[in-house]
Design brief:
The chain is an alpha/beta fold and 333 residues long. The protein is built from eight helices and ten strands.
C-alpha cells in the first residue's frame, strides 16, 4: 500500500468541502495496458466532491466573479449544464449561499438531476427537439437549453456562468490540474488526450504542458461523425458520450496547442469504460472510456512506448440508468 503523505488532501483540515476540490490522484493503468506498449496515466477527477473535473471550474468561475464584483451576496446563479458543471456549481453555491438554477436537457442522465437537487439546486429540464433521443444530446438540443438559461438569468437578474466562453474554465486547469500532473510525473510525460466538452480541460492542460515542454503531444478528442472543432462536416450527431461532443464551436480551444484531432465511437467509449471498471477498479463515465480508448489506440500506433496522461472526467455512478451499465455490461468485456 502506498500512502502518499505529500498529498495535501491527506493532511489538511478544511473550513469547507471546497478545499477538497482538486488534489486528485494519478494512476498508472498497467492492468489495462501492456507496459511494453507504453503507459496510460489516469487523473481520477471523479474523486473530487462533486465526482467530476467540473468542480474545479465551478469554484474558479464563482470566486473570480466575486473578486470582480460581478456576483453579489445572495444573487442567483444560473447555468446550462449536462450535469457535471451543475453539480459543481450546486456544491459551491450551497457553501457560499447563492441560490443556484441549473438548466439541463432531458436527454442527460437523471442521476445528475437528483444530485443537483440534493445540493439544493433548482433544476429546469428542457425537452429535446424533434428527432432527439434520451442519452444523445445534440448541439441543437444544447442550443435550446442555452436559450432557456439566458432567459432565466435575465428574468432573475442572475449571474450567468457561461462556461463555454469563461476563461476561468481553462485557467482552472492550467493552474490546477496541469500543475498537479506535472508534479505527480516529474514532468516526464509524452502526450495528453482529452474528450472535448467545453474544451476547458484540454485547453488549460495543453497550454500548460506546451509551455513546459513543446514536444509533449496533445490530442483533442471528438465523437466520430461530429468532429466540428476539427473542421469536419457533421455526419452523425447522435452519440451516447454525455457531457461533450455537441458539434459546436469551442472558443476556449486554441489550435496552437492542438497537435492532432482524433475521434472515438460511442461503442468504444462504452467498451473501455467497462474495461476500466473490471480491470482497474476505476468507475468512470462515458468520457473516461472515450479518453482511455484513444490513449490505448495511440500507444498501439504513433505513441508506442510513450507515456500518455488522460482524464477520468466523472463517475460511472452518474450513468447507472443508461446503457453504459446495462445488465449486458457484465458479460461485454
Amino acid at each position: 500500500m502506498n500512502l502518499n503523505m505529500d498529498n495535501p488532501s491527506n493532511q489538511c483540515l478544511y473550513s469547507s468541502v471546497l478545499g477538497a476540490i482538486g488534489h486528485t490522484p494519478l494512476v498508472d493503468l498497467s492492468r489495462l495496458m501492456n507496459p511494453s506498449k507504453g503507459r496510460i496515466l489516469a487523473k481520477l477527477e471523479y474523486l473530487s466532491p462533486g465526482h467530476s473535473k467540473k468542480d474545479r471550474i465551478a469554484l474558479a468561475i464563482i470566486e473570480s466573479a466575486e473578486n470582480r464584483g460581478e456576483l453579489s451576496s445572495g444573487q442567483t446563479v444560473v447555468e446550462m449544464t449536462s450535469g457535471n458543471t451543475g453539480t459543481g456549481l450546486a456544491i459551491v453555491c450551497a457553501v457560499k449561499k447563492y441560490p443556484f438554477v441549473a438548466v439541463m436537457s432531458e436527454g442527460n442522465s437523471m442521476e445528475r438531476v437528483r444530485m443537483m437537487r440534493a445540493f439544493g439546486a433548482e433544476v429546469h429540464l428542457v425537452p429535446q427537439l424533434s428527432g432527439g433521443k434520451s442519452g444523445c444530446v445534440r448541439g441543437e438540443d444544447l442550443a435550446q437549453v442555452e436559450e432557456v438559461a439566458r432567459e432565466l438569468a435575465q428574468d432573475r437578474s442572475a449571474f450567468l456562468v457561461d462556461q463555454f466562453i469563461r476563461r476561468e474554465n481553462s485557467t482552472a486547469h492550467a493552474l490546477g490540474t496541469a500543475q498537479e500532473i506535472l508534479r505527480q510525473t516529474g514532468g516526464k510525460i509524452d502526450g495528453f488526450c482529452d474528450f472535448l466538452g467545453t474544451g476547458g480541460t484540454f485547453a488549460g492542460c495543453a497550454m500548460a504542458f506546451k509551455k513546459v515542454d513543446p514536444s509533449i503531444r496533445t490530442y483533442a478528442i471528438e465523437p466520430t461523425g461530429a468532429a466540428v472543432v476539427a473542421g469536419d462536416a457533421i455526419s452523425s450527431s447522435q452519440h451516447p458520450i454525455q457531457g461533450g461532443g455537441y458539434a459546436r464551436p469551442l472558443p476556449l480551444v486554441d489550435a496552437e496547442f492542438v497537435d492532432a484531432f482524433v475521434t472515438v465511437t460511442g461503442a468504444d467509449a462504452i467498451e473501455w469504460a467497462r474495461r476500466l471498471a473490471k480491470q482497474e477498479g476505476i468507475f468512470g463515465g462515458y468520457s473516461a472510456g472515450a479518453n482511455v480508448a484513444v490513449a490505448a489506440r495511440l500507444l498501439e500506433d504513433e505513441m508506442r512506448g510513450k507515456t500518455i496522461v488522460t482524464m477520468i472526467c466523472d463517475s460511472g455512478m452518474k450513468y447507472l440508468s443508461t446503457d453504459l451499465w446495462s445488465e449486458s455490461a457484465a458479460d461485454s468485456v
